[in-house]
Amino acid sequence: MNTITVTKSTLPPYEEFIEKIKPLWDSRWLTNMGSYHMELEERLREYLRVPYLSLMVNGHMALELALQAMNLPENSEVITTPFTFISTTHAIVRNRLKPVFCDIKLTDYTMDETKIEALITEKTKAILPVHVYGNLCNIEKIQTIAGQYGLKVLYDACHAFGVSQNGIGAGNFGDASVFSFHATKVYHTIEGGAVAFSDPAMYESLYNLKNFGIRGEESVVAVGANAKMNEFCAIMGLCNLPEVETHIALRKAKAEWYRTQLLNEELLRLPVYDNPQITYNYGYFPVRFLKKGLRDQVYDALRKQDIYARKYFYPLTSDAVCFKKRYQEVPLPNAHEAADNILVLPLYPELAEKDQERIVKVIRQELKK
Ligand SMILES: *Cc1c(COP(=O)(O)O)cnc(C)c1O
Questions:
Q1: What is the pairing mode between strands 164-165 and 268-269?
Q2: How far apart are CA 134 and CA 124, in angstroms?
Q3: I need a labelling partner for 314 at 20 to 30 A (CA). Which of 29, 203, 291, 354 fits?
Q4: Which residue has its alpha carbon closest to ligand 1 atom 14?
C-alpha cells in the first residue's frame, strides 16, 4: 500500500514551469530583485490585500528581519507562544531578544490573550503571536494591550496564507505579519516567505536588510543578511498563485470529509470552521485526543500502515533542548495539553478518498481498543 505523508507539495504542470523559466537563459538575471521577484511581490501584495509586502528567501528569515527592522533594544522581552514551529522562537533569540512564553487556549490553540498582561514587565517591547493552523489570534484584544503598553506586534502568519476576517486579509494586523511559502505550505515558492506591513518606511528597511544592508554601490547602512528570493522560486510562485483558490477548495472538501467521519467520536476534538466572519485556508487538520496516551497510540498505529501523521507541535519550543530551563518557567498547562495530545492528519489537495478512508479506519480501530 502507498505511503501517505502529512502533506504533499503542489506543482504546476511541468511544461508550464519550463516555459516560464526559459527567458532566464537569455536574461541571465537569476536573482537580486529580478523582474519575476518584483512581479511576484506585487501579485502577492494584491492577493493578500496588504498595503506593503517584502518578498524573502523563506519564512524564517522574514521573521528574523521583520524583528530586526523593529529595532528593539538588546535583551528586550518578547511575549510569544511555545506552541509553534521552532522557527518562531529562534527568530527572537537570534535577534538577541528574550522569549517570554504565554499559554494558549484549547479552543483554537492560539495565544491566550487574557494571560498576556501578567507577563508584561518594563523590558517587554513586543508580542509575537502565531495564527497557528491558520486560526487567527484575538487580534482586537492583542492590539488593545499593545496600544496600552506601547508594544510592537509581529504576527507569525506562516499558517494563515489566504485566511481573512470580515474580508480583511490576515496580513493586515499588528505592525507586521510574516508568511512562509515553504514547499509544505498551502501556497509555496519551493522556499520563500514575505513580510506584510502598513508602514511604508519598513519597505526600505527590509529591502536593505535582505540584501546585506547595502543601499548603494559604496554604502552599507545596516547589518543585513542575505534573504533575497531567486528568480526560479519567484516563477514557481507565479505559477502556483492562480491555483491556490482551487487548492484551498480541495482542502476544504477533504477537511469536511474528515469532520463528518469523525464527528461522533467522543474522544476527539476536531477543528471547527463555522465562524461566518472567517475565510479559512484548511492548511492543517489537527485532532486533539481526550485520553492520555491515545495520540501516541494512534500515531504509532498509523505509522505501521505507512501513514505519517505529525505531532505538530511536540515538544513545545520552550522544551527544545536548546531552550529548556534557559527562560522563565511559567506554567503552560494548555500548551502542554495541546503538545501532548494533538495529531495533525494528512491533508493536501490531491489526497485520495481511499487514503482518507484508510486513515479514518486506523483511528477508529484504536479508539475501540
Ligand atoms: C513554516 C513556518 C515557519 C518558517 O518558515 P520557512 O519558510 O520554513 O522558513 C515559521 N513559523 C511557522 C509557524 C511555520 O509554520
A1: unpaired
A2: 26
A3: 354
A4: 158
